[in-house]
12385_t:CDS:1
Amino acid sequence: MILLKLGYGYNRKSQYKIIEKEIFKLFIRKCFDIKELQIIDIELELHNFLGAENCFSNLCKLICDTSINSNIFFGLARICKSIEFLFLSPCLNDNEGLIELIEVQKNLKYLRCKGTKDQFENGQCDGIEKALKKQWHTLIHFSIDNLCFNPTIFPIFKNLQKLEITEKKHVCLNKGYYRNLSKSKYSNLQILITKNITHNIVEKIIEKTNGYLWKIDITNDMHEKIDHENFIKIIYQHCPNIKLINILIHENKNLLELEQLLLNCQYLEGIVIESPPIYRSLDERINGNELLEIITRSAPIGLHKIKVYKNLEISLNSLITFFENWRGRMPLYFHTIMSYSKLNKDYLDIIEKYEKEGILKEYKDLNNYPSPVGW
């Protein structure tokens, strides 16, 4: 073990910088073929150290922010041409060196950016945005947390396989954002993850896909009115290969469309059912017995993960019948909310019985997990 103790006083900062520089020099000289680099609050121009080319020439993943000294990025741009994953957090303003680094990449596939509300309206990242648009042909994953670019960037990325969009709760996004999201084509999209994006826009995105979507994870804390039946219908009409999905169900009549989803989506493996935010405080219930009957008669063979963030009224006999009918299928993950008056010893004994028999892989009482989480 090496213990370095810096004295207190005016020279402490300069001592620290000297030691930091020597450590980096040693690290870069001795290490070869670094694949991942995270740059945070650093002033040293690493590319000028002996051995930097051998150390960073095959760099695949870079995590950084836009406040880093531009010269560092200029230096890396001369060495690093094979970065596949770029995470900008935060992405707050243009950086000429970073722009050049992005432009020289030959195979940038994964982009994740974290910005601030309405940042794009001030044109703070226009240069970075233009550089990223030049990489449209290789980008397949785009994750953005609070839009930091002009929304016209969305139609450019034609080869996306994964799109993840997160916005702050109660943020009112401008019409240009939604217009560009909805008019874009997502021909190769396989994974769609959104948070606090209106269902109307999510529907339009799904309708612009080519049937390759296998995961849809939608979280929405906004109190908006939703046509739940139409949303479910759009999913089973446009997503025949869906494996993992979460949907909103408010009333028992929505169960009819749920059954159609189960019948039409034969690759389904996991489903999350929850209440729309606007109705959550009402503590409404759906007919749990009918829900289990629908799942029993219509679930595709691969479905084995069921999570229901709703109060269910399930009779003991219906629960037993459901588990008995599950024999011969994949062991079931069954997470749900049942009122504590229902979840008595008889129910717990039945759950334990089918867990021991291997029919039930895992039961979880979601009363203890109030925030919906996908599979």
